[in-house]
Write a structure and sequence with these properties.
The protein is of the alpha/beta class and about 350 residues long. The chain has 11 helices and 18 strands. Helix 4 packs across helix 10. The protein starts with a strand and ends with a strand. The protein binds zinc ion (2 copies). The site of one zinc ion (ZN) has 6 residues, from helix 4. One zinc ion binds next to helix 4.
């Protein structure tokens, strides 16, 4: 089968290669990949800014059909439409694993970076990672369950927006547009910030439930937030852009005693005024991937139609056009690029 692989350490070194189809060992399941999302992490892997164990098949945002069962698998049936969590192996015994936080396990190995992932026709995953897709969710929408689970963890479980909270989301990419939708589902009011490059994405934010959208290059977000909150500032702010100026701006928009959630990754150290964390007595949270508890919540939000992922899948490419998909993503055209292995 064809597979998009990181073939060696260093910048680039990503190729489409022909490799043998895998077979599932005991306790594991072979999935036929129907759709796989391209993520910021994949670009970081391309540029060697994220640890990998090459040669390895990339891709961790997967939806597919169960094709074959390893020995002893009982929870899953051949033919089911499913998605999968991304941790292939964790130690199971450290304090984080025991507390339901395997994302923090020092020994974790994830598909798409340490173990072969889903930019191929087939992928092998552990049985316990599999979740059935709701009937109303197609494979393309289902491939975005993974980023949604990350957002459920970072934006809901950790930052805990309340009904009627005024929240600000900076960065209307996939993560920002999912954050917008989960805070709306929690009953909060949302303002989404973007730049001139984000015109289409901001329009999508409006369609997906933003109360206001702001192009920060031309409009005064501070004035708007102040008007909406009797001068207090936003209850919760979410940095989803991974851009340092947005992180700094959000410190000015959040109210005293409010919450600041860092969801985006900068890829480098940034300047951020920690004095404001003291002056305003802010609670600051950061999140790293997802935890198992976030997956059923993510799938319930999809099943109930409270979060829509299909409108975010702006561009769909065959696997062989992976480079074009990466380029489109890097040039910040569209929202989410999805790869489909050829039949
Ligand atoms: Zn991802
Ligand atoms: Zn562990």
């Amino acid at each position: 089968m064809d597979a998009v692989m990181k073939v060696a350490p260093g910048v680039g070194n990503v190729e489409l290669r022909e490799i043998a189809e895998p077979t599932p060992p005991p306790g594991h399941v072979l999935l036929e990949v129907k759709a796989a999302g391209v993520c910021g992490t994949d670009l970081h892997i391309y540029y060697d800014e994220f640890p990998t164990r090459p040669p390895v098949v990339m891709g961790h945002e997967i939806a597919g059909q169960v094709a074959e069962l390893g020995a002893g698998v009982s929870r899953v049936r051949v033919g089911e439409r499913v998605t999968t969590e991304t941790f292939f192996a964790t130690c199971g015994s450290c304090r984080f694993c025991r507390a339901g936080r395997p994302n923090l396990c020092p020994g974790r190995k994830s598909i798409g970076s340490a173990v072969d992932g889903g930019f191929a026709r087939y992928v092998v995953v552990p049985e316990q990672n599999i979740h059935q897709l709701p009937a109303n969710i197609d494979y393309i929408a289902g491939a975005l369950t993974e980023p949604l689970a990350c957002v459920v963890h970072g934006a809901l479980e950790l930052a805990r927006p309340l009904p009627e909270d005024v929240v600000v989301v900076a960065g209307p990419g996939t993560i920002g547009l999912l954050t917008l939708q989960v805070v709306r589902a929690a009953g909060a009011r949302a303002i989404v910030l973007g730049t001139g490059q984000d015109e289409q994405r901001l329009a999508l934010a409006l369609a997906l439930g933003a109360e206001h959208i702001v192009n920060v290059e031309h409009e005064d977000a501070g004035r708007l937030v102040s008007d909406l909150t009797d001068g207090d500032g936003a209850d919760v702010v979410y940095e989803c852009s991974g851009a340092a100026p947005a992180a700094q701006q959000l410190l000015g928009l959040v109210r005293r005693g409010g919450r600041y959630a860092q969801i985006g990754l900068f890829g480098k150290p940034v300047t951020w005024d920690l004095n404001q964390v003291c002056y305003k007595e802010l609670s600051v949270t950061g999140s790293n991937a997802s935890v198992p508890s976030a997956w059923p919540r993510a799938l319930a939000l999809l099943a109930e139609g409270k979060v829509q992922t299909r409108p975010l899948a702006s561009d769909i490419f065959p696997l062989s056009a992976w480079r074009q998909a990466f380029d489109t993503f890097e040039q910040r055209r569209g929202v989410k690029m999805v790869l489909r292995p050829e039949e």
